[in-house]
Amino acid sequence: MEPYFWLALLIPFFTIFYQTAWKNLNHNQNPKFSWPFIGFLPQMGSLAHRKLASMATSFKSTRLMFISLGSMRLVVSSHPETAKQILSGNAFSDRPIKETTRLLMFDRAIGFAPSGKYWHHLRKIASNHMFSPKRILNMEGFRQGVVNNMMQEVCKEMKDRGLVELRGILHKGSLDNMLESVFGSSNFGCRGDELGLMVKEGYELIGEFNWVDYFTLGFLDLFGVKKRCYNLACKVRDLLNGIIEERRRIGDFRTRDDFLSVLLSLPQEDQLCDADMVAVLWEMVFRGVDNVAILLEWIMARMVLHQDIQAKAQQEIDMCVGPNRHVQDSDIANLQYLQAIVKEVLRLHPPGPLLSWARLAIHDVHLDKCFIPAGTTAMVNMWAIAHDPMIWPDPSTFKPERFMEAEFSIMGSDLRLAPFGSGRRACPGKALGLATVHKWLARMLQQFKWLPSQPIDLGECLKLSLEMKKPLQCYAIARSFKK
């Protein structure tokens, strides 16, 4: 029987027993309308970042907007000042854990583990061994090898199909990059392909709407999300436990510097149990693959759409690097315009405009003089901040030059644009992600001129990250590069 039938039967139950989440809290004055019982859930979806921004503007509640999503209390910031209070405040030190997140084991990994001794231990391990400047530098040769393979795939697609669909090439390159960094090898054969499919399925599951996240319906699985998450988690455990046991049998992890070997060679008192190790390794691959690929697809869409900006970036590369060698990591510091392009794309198309920014109030707190009870979810709408005309002149225009006029950090200190978060929950892999994006973008622009094969569609789809709704297709024409 269709799940909607059961939902229809449950509506009278909610009508009788459900109360609006913010009822009896006298500061909730800004929303003018919401659906009975379900709050603002109809406003959520693939364009939730835009809808919430529009609501905040119309209610004159950009600093803070109080809404309900089913039984969930939600406060939304669309302003840098209140965003800083949320992201840097001790009261919002945890992340809200939805059922999908828990079932996919992310509650034991860095992104969602509750703040405390265990979480601090994970952050220390990641900072010292996975994302340290020394390790990023040591991985340059492999990143170069991955992008070489990607350029070969571009040539192959142009020869075989007459055009390039970049999404598949970018995802494959990102997966190889993460497998090498996490496991010390991208040559996993069918296991690497299987892990890539698991990442794809996980993104689909986390992006799906689940009633249990907004109502007390733990006993139901209306759309089969719980069952699918359980099945995927079992497959992830089996695969990663096999890799861990294989590495233990080989016993050479003390001479290697991949992340799995680091975890296995930690002192006894710092060791993680296998279940936690699986969760951490899974999160590293899961988050590392799509973030880089999604951002690069947005950047390349802008390069294809704005031929003058693409040409200017290529001129900068030609002047700073020349035609006789590939771009190196050491060249990036001199490619100021290329860095500005990346910043402008992060402003216009932030990969995590909502979900990556959610925090949970662990105790009662006053936020911007408003009382926020413990258990409230606080969310920063970075898309709204980055498109606010009071902060960014002509915010809808793609204009990298705005970042050439003055030094502007995007690493979390300036909440006008902090795409990797801020405060204690900022993304620990931001330096590695940027190093990869800058290097691969420079190589793509150095070797090819990118032209549209059809009108560029900048339509958005918000899942866990903000993706292009339709994969980018374009022509790649070889430039006069002698290497």
From TrEMBL:
<dbReference type="InterPro" id="IPR036396">
    <property type="entry name" value="Cyt_P450_sf"/>
</dbReference>
<dbReference type="InterPro" id="IPR001128">
    <property type="entry name" value="Cyt_P450"/>
</dbReference>
<keyword id="KW-0479">Metal-binding</keyword>
<keyword id="KW-0503">Monooxygenase</keyword>
<dbReference type="GO" id="GO:0016020">
    <property type="term" value="C:membrane"/>
</dbReference>
<dbReference type="Pfam" id="PF00067">
    <property type="entry name" value="p450"/>
</dbReference>
<feature type="binding site" description="axial binding residue">
    <location>
        <position position="427"/>
    </location>
    <ligand>
        <name>heme</name>
    </ligand>
</feature>
<dbReference type="GO" id="GO:0020037">
    <property type="term" value="F:heme binding"/>
</dbReference>
<comment type="similarity">
    <text>Belongs to the cytochrome P450 family.</text>
</comment>
<dbReference type="GO" id="GO:0005506">
    <property type="term" value="F:iron ion binding"/>
</dbReference>
<protein>
    <submittedName>
        <fullName>Cytochrome P450 CYP2 subfamily</fullName>
        <ecNumber>1.14.13.21</ecNumber>
    </submittedName>
</protein>
<dbReference type="InterPro" id="IPR051996">
    <property type="entry name" value="Cytochrome_P450_78A"/>
</dbReference>
<dbReference type="InterPro" id="IPR017972">
    <property type="entry name" value="Cyt_P450_CS"/>
</dbReference>
<dbReference type="GO" id="GO:0016705">
    <property type="term" value="F:oxidoreductase activity, acting on paired donors, with incorporation or reduction of molecular oxygen"/>
</dbReference>
<keyword id="KW-0560">Oxidoreductase</keyword>
<keyword id="KW-0408">Iron</keyword>
<keyword id="KW-0349">Heme</keyword>
<dbReference type="GO" id="GO:0004497">
    <property type="term" value="F:monooxygenase activity"/>
</dbReference>
<dbReference type="InterPro" id="IPR002401">
    <property type="entry name" value="Cyt_P450_E_grp-I"/>
</dbReference>
